[in-house]
Design brief:
Mean pLDDT: 89
Strand content: under 5%
Distance between the termini: 63 Å
Largest sheet: none
Structural class: mainly alpha
Number of strands: 0
Low-confidence stretches: none
Number of helices: 10
Order of helices and strands: HHHHHHHHHH
Helix content: over 70%
Length: 276
């Protein structure tokens, strides 16, 4: 009966996934409940500022460099195709829309998930296996309020800010390559950026980044709080934190893209097209 173990394995994996999602939902709801019930205690400067610095300031180099290179690469790869149809002047507008609406938020979130998410999981996982979380509970200190909420809030706040920074450097990188290297008119570059890019499109990117930040922070903290004993458990928590966050970012981007595109069409029915 070779099929029976396979079916049993699928059933067991499915059950574990559903149970894990349920536990994660309860964990996130507990954090939200603490934030709503005790906002001033959860967001004390001594708790939130170190996390804002760790998540945001320390992520600026990797996010900025990634954004700049993405803008340059898109300009180099897209120039020949646009030049072939005589529309190279519009390349800047297309790149800025792509960066602000799709690529910037996703790549910024992935960089944050890689640099911050794994570190948060490893930090909290180490505290779990060394029984520091149990010690906090024994002293009547709530680890979710003290450890989880500030980290999630920091991710929610700083991911959109990092996305703005990435978008700006991506635009600068596209301008550098398109205008200074490939010879497109500077005036035409900015004219079509203003013509094609609508304010709602960058705003939709910031909405995505906010949701991505929530996914990163909550998943990282959950993986840390459910870390298995031992050094291997900490490593697995950090790895699974990044992988799960990455999948959540991609899935959320798909859902939000359709939803925000519908909103955009309703709000700006006569928005200019790329070649309009």
């Amino acid at each position: 009966m070779p099929a029976v173990p396979a079916v049993s394995k699928v059933g067991s994996t499915t059950y574990d996934a559903i149970a894990g999602f349920g536990d994660f939902t309860l964990f996130l709801l507990a954090a939200v409940q603490r934030l709503i019930a005790q906002p001033t205690r959860c967001l004390k400067p001594s708790l939130i500022f170190p996390q804002l610095y760790s998540v945001g300031v320390l992520s600026i180099p990797v996010v900025g460099i990634t954004g700049a290179f993405i803008g340059m690469i898109l300009a180099l790869e897209g120039f020949d195709q646009f030049q072939a149809i005589g529309q190279e002047d519009r390349l800047g507008g297309v790149i800025v829309v792509s960066v602000c609406k799709q690529i910037g938020p996703v790549l910024s979130a992935v960089m944050v998930a890689g640099r911050v998410g794994g570190a948060l999981s490893a930090e909290l996982g180490t505290m779990r296996i060394t029984e520091q979380l149990d010690a906090m509970r024994a002293m009547d200190a709530d680890p979710i309020r003290i450890l989880v909420v500030p980290r999630i809030v920091a991710c929610v706040i700083m991911t959109p800010i990092l996305t703005i920074f990435s978008d700006a450097l991506g635009t600068a990188g596209a301008w550098l390559v398109t205008v200074r290297i490939l010879g497109v008119s500077d005036v035409e570059f900015w004219h079509y950026v203003q013509h094609i890019v609508n304010l709602i499109e960058p705003m939709s990117g910031l909405v995505k980044a906010t949701v991505f930040g929530l996914c990163i922070g909550s998943i990282a903290c959950y993986r840390g709080f459910t870390c298995q004993p031992g050094a291997a458990g900490v490593g697995q928590a950090a790895t699974s934190s990044f992988v799960t966050s990455f999948l959540a970012i991609i899935a959320a981007n798909l859902v939000l893209a359709e939803f925000l595109n519908t909103i955009f069409i309703l709000l700006v029915p006569d928005a200019p097209s790329v070649f309009g």
